[in-house]
Design brief:
Blueprint (H helix, E strand, L loop, with lengths): L1 E6 L4 E8 L3 E9 L1 H5 L6 H23 L7 H6 L3 E7 L3 H17 L4 E5 H7 L5 E2 L19 E6 L4 E8 L2 E7 L5 H12 L5 H9 L23 H14 L11 H4 L2 H30 L3 E5 L6 H7 L11 H4 L4 H13 L18
The structure holds 5'-O-[(R)-(carboxyoxy)(hydroxy)phosphoryl]adenosine (KG4) and zinc ion.
């Protein structure tokens, strides 16, 4: 079964074709991140406008890459697609609308079943992709060769979410913990802003951290009533206070003026200490949950799963966590198509594609 996935929940316009929930035939991502970088965060109107411009070319390319060896006409390519899957939430309304309206229209026009996907849940399904077509465009993607096994303990960490979830089976799961305030990726983005590092903050903070001492500062780890919940907003504020102190100022000193007065070694120490504490908080929760629930597999998914320090610290856990290629950790449509394949074996498609609505606040 070949499913065309469509993802537009934030600033990436993505389309991909995945066969049987495990074999990657194409993965196309057009990001508008460069347009947002000057603002230090995603601007919803710009993201939505970029989706409108990119969505049809991105879908065309996903189909052409998937069937390239076979020199097919567009109509023939479509006849090889068995279903369409689209992210319905959570995400930015304007962004989600473009993907969902496109998917609805295509499902009706091409007469294909349509599956609606929860973006956060789908991040875990990126690790179910274990094979790829021998296409040049997929050459740079390296996959784990074994799918995770249930029960799966999943840490889903991205710009919008920090969740610890126990999956008994497909679509049968329990949220063990989540963030009370900022998502961990969001904390990286905010710390980057304090240090004057480029957006998105994950890669730039971890790059700066390489030159710093992770033990330079003792930063607080939030303790929550539910032991598996997280909080990252206090940690971000602690970084701000430490930065103000380093330059001999008090809490009234504006954060926007810090990048100009902090030197490179202070920035590196702040980045390294923040990263160390944030990652340790995540790994502590993961360790406690894996001891309590004894999962067969641990999966770490979402944009922050790209973080080296996270991988180094989490690799000490048993079982050793499963990650996927960085290209499938950050937002992509292959994970949407993979999730829909397992829906197709468990549930009915959307009864009337015309009636599928976006759900920006969709929970797991
Ligand atoms: O999953 P994703 O692409 O989008 C959301 O669903 O949010 O995740 C993006 C987030 C951003 O906050 C970004 O700063 C973070 O993932 N990120 C990282 C790294 N690469 C991306 N965080 C820490 N370390 C990284 N290497
Ligand atoms: Zn995401």
């Amino acid at each position: 079964m070949k499913i065309l996935g469509i993802e537009t929940s934030c600033d990436e316009t993505a389309a991909a074709v995945v066969e049987d929930g495990r074999r990657l035939l194409s993965n196309v991502v057009a990001s508008s991140v460069d347009l947002h970088a000057v603002y230090g965060g995603v601007v919803p109107e710009i993201a939505a406008r970029s989706h409108i411009e990119s969505i049809l070319p991105v879908i065309d390319e996903a189909l052409k890459t998937a069937f390239q060896g076979r020199a097919l006409e567009m109509a023939e390519m479509w006849s090889n697609i068995d279903a369409i899957a689209v992210t319905r939430g959570p995400g930015l309304s304007g962004s989600l609308l473009i993907g969902v309206l496109t998917a609805r229209t295509l499902a009706i026009a091409k007469n294909k079943p349509l599956y609606a996907v929860n973006h956060v849940e789908a991040h875990v399904y990126a690790t179910f992709i274990t094979e790829k077509a021998k296409s040049l465009k997929l050459k740079a993607i390296s996959l784990n060769n074994k799918q995770p096994e249930f029960p799966i303990l999943a840490l889903i960490v991205s710009g919008g979410h920090s969740q610890l979830v126990l999956f008994k089976n497909h679509f049968d799961y329990k949220i063990l913990g989540q963030t009370a305030d900022d998502a961990v990726g969001e904390a990286f983005d905010k710390v980057a802003k304090i240090l004057g590092l480029p957006y998105p903050g994950g890669p730039s903070v971890s790059q700066a951290a390489k030159e710093g001492n992770p033990n330079a500062l003792l930063l607080p780890k939030a303790r929550m009533q539910n032991g598996y919940d997280y909080s990252f907003s206090g940690l971000k504020t602690a970084v701000l206070r430490a930065a103000q102190q380093m330059v001999g100022k008090d809490f009234t000193f504006p954060s926007s003026a810090l990048p100009a007065v902090l030197n490179a070694s202070q920035k590196a120490n702040l980045a390294a200490s923040f990263q160390h504490t944030a990652i340790q908080t995540l790994v502590d929760g993961l360790k406690a949950a894996s001891e309590e629930f004894e999962p067969k597999s641990i999966v770490i998914a979402g944009g922050v799963a790209a973080n080296r320090e996270l991988r180094t610290q989490a690799d000490k856990l048993t079982p050793k966590p499963i990650y996927t290629d960085i290209k499938l950790c950050t937002d992509n449509a292959a994970m949407i198509a993979a999730n829909a394949y397992y829906q197709a074996s468990n549930k009915q498609p959307v009864a009337d594609p015309y009636s599928l609505e976006i759900d920006p606040g969709l929970q797991m």
